[in-house]
Design a protein that fits this description.
Function: Catalyzes the reversible conversion of ribose-5-phosphate to ribulose 5-phosphate.
Strand order of the largest sheet: 2-1-3-6-14-15
CATH architecture of the largest domain: 3-Layer(aba) Sandwich
Distance between the termini: 45 Å
Number of helices: 6
Enzyme class: isomerase
Order of helices and strands: HEHEHEEEHEEHEEEEHEEEE
Structural class: alpha/beta
Pathway: Carbohydrate degradation; pentose phosphate pathway; D-ribose 5-phosphate from D-ribulose 5-phosphate (non-oxidative stage): step 1/1
Helix content: 25-40%
Strand content: 25-35%
Shape: globular
Keywords: Isomerase
GO molecular function, one term: ribose-5-phosphate isomerase activity
CATH class of the largest domain: Alpha Beta
Number of strands: 15
Length: about 240
């Protein structure tokens, strides 16, 4: 039997999470390839009569949802959400995540924090014993970018973390810009043994807007593998 493709597993995780979406919910809509499957499947349910309101975490997701006829709002109009469903670049057994590969980490974190629950949808390849295999994105203000990078390097060294810190580029001569107009440094630390401490120290650096460590936000992770979808965490818990 041919094992399912990564894309098929992503869609299976998205479909499993969609079963928790109920009529009238206020939803945070994530960004990335796996989240795009969820938005696509949600659009099909909306066409069948499901009524929900979505708050997108990126312009890319907003455009996709609009094309599918999903009713959208903003966090200013809808400041509290029932559920956010989003992907992850990697996760561990403690429901800690690294996100930001798609460049939307700041808005994703703001939307997740405004939600009673956050469901993560992912294929099994994203599960790790220790965070850090995926380079950690750190979103920074463009002003003083080189100085901010030096601060990040010092914080990393203080925790025994080594590896290249690379400015994300959109083109050879143009740095990538987030929807908020910020730069992203991708930090290839390989293994982050103390993610909570790293998160706190990065947050203390002037110039760091946010980072891709999502700690204490995910309430459940839907993990799709060759044998189906399993759930880590609690699909009923959480609350503002």
């Amino acid at each position: 039997m041919t094992p399912p493709s990564a894309d098929a597993m992503k869609r299976a995780a998205a479909a499993a999470a969609l079963e928790s979406v109920a009529h009238g919910m206020r939803l945070g809509l994530g960004t990335g390839s796996t989240a795009a499957h969820f938005v696509d499947l949600l659009g099909a349910r909306v066409r069948e009569g499901l009524e929900v309101v979505g708050v997108p975490t990126s312009e890319r997701t907003r455009l996709q949802a609009e094309k599918l006829g999903i009713k959208l709002s903003t966090l200013d109009e809808t400041p509290e959400l029932d559920l956010t469903i989003d992907g992850a670049d990697e996760f561990d057994a403690s429901l800690r995540l690294v996100k930001g590969g798609g460049g939307a980490l700041l808005r994703e974190k703001i939307v997740a924090a405004a939600s009673k629950r956050m469901f993560v949808i992912a294929d099994a390849t994203k599960e790790v014993a220790t965070l850090g295999a995926f380079p950690l994105p750190v979103e920074i203000d463009r002003f003083g970018a080189r100085s901010t990078r030096l601060h990040i390097e010092r914080v990393a060294r203080g925790l025994g973390l080594e590896g290249p810190i690379t400015l994300r580029m959109a083109a050879p001569d143009a740095p990538y810009l987030t929807d908020g107009g910020h730069y992203i440094y991708d930090c290839a630390f390989s293994a982050i043994d103390e993610p909570e401490t790293l998160a706190q120290r990065l947050e203390s650096i002037p110039g760091v807007v946010d980072h891709g460590l999502f700690i204490g936000l995910a309430t459940a992770i839907f993990v799709a593998g060759a044998s189906g979808v399993r759930i880590i965490g609690d699909v009923t818990g959480g609350g503002l």
